[in-house]
Amino acid sequence: VMDNITLALCKVFGMPGQLAREKALHVLQKLDMASHSAKYPSQLSGGQQQRVALARTMVTDPELIIFDEPTSALDPLMTREVGMLIKQLHDNGVTILCVTHDIRLARLLSDNVTFLNHGKIRAEGAFTDLALRETDPDIHCFFSEAQR
Predict the structure, then answer these.
(1) The whole model's pTM is what?
(2) Which of the given ranges, 11-25, 36-50, 130-144, has the highest pLDDT on average?
(3) Where in the cell is it found (predicted)?
C-alpha cells in the first residue's frame, strides 16, 4: 500500500522517499488506513482498495479529481463511506467530476448534474431543481430512485 501511494510522488514529482512516506502516512491516517500501509492491495477489501486509490490521488494535492463509477461493486455501507470521503474532498475545495449511475451518490456529491444518453445531454442543472421540475420520464425515474 505504501509503495503504491508513494510511487507517483517519488517518480513523477521527484519527492524524496522519506518525505513521500510521511505525506502518504498522513493521508492514510485521514482515511483510517494507516494500519494497512504494509499490506498488499490483494489483502484489502474492496472499500479499502478504493480508499488506497483515493489516498494515491490525495497525496498529489489535486485541484480536480475525476471519478468514474467510484462505488461500483461496493456494498451499500462502503458506497456511503467512499461517497462521504469524496464529499469531504469537495468540502475542502477540490473540484469533483463524478460519472455515476448511482443517483444517491450523485445527490450526495453534486452541486450540478448532467444526464447523458448516447453521448447527448438530456438534462442538466442543480440536482434539486431537476428533481422538482424535470418532466422527462426516464430522468424522473432516476429521481424517484433517489427518494428511496
Answers:
(1) 0.80
(2) 11-25
(3) Cell inner membrane
Q: What is the pLDDT of residue 134?
A: 77
Residue among 69, 67, 85 nearest 77 (CA): 85
Indicate the domain borders of the chain.
Answer: 1-61
Largest CA distance in the chain: 56
How many Å apart are CA 130 and CA 113, to the nearest integer? 8
Which has the higher per-residue pLDDT, 145 or 95? Answer: 95
Query: 5, 55, 6, 8: which is closest to 27 by C-alpha?
Result: 55
For 94, the 3-state DSSP assignment is: coil
140 class by beta-carbon count within 10 Å (0-12 exposed, 13-18 middle, 19+ buried): middle
Question: Residue 72 and residue 49: Cα distance in Å, rounded?
Answer: 12
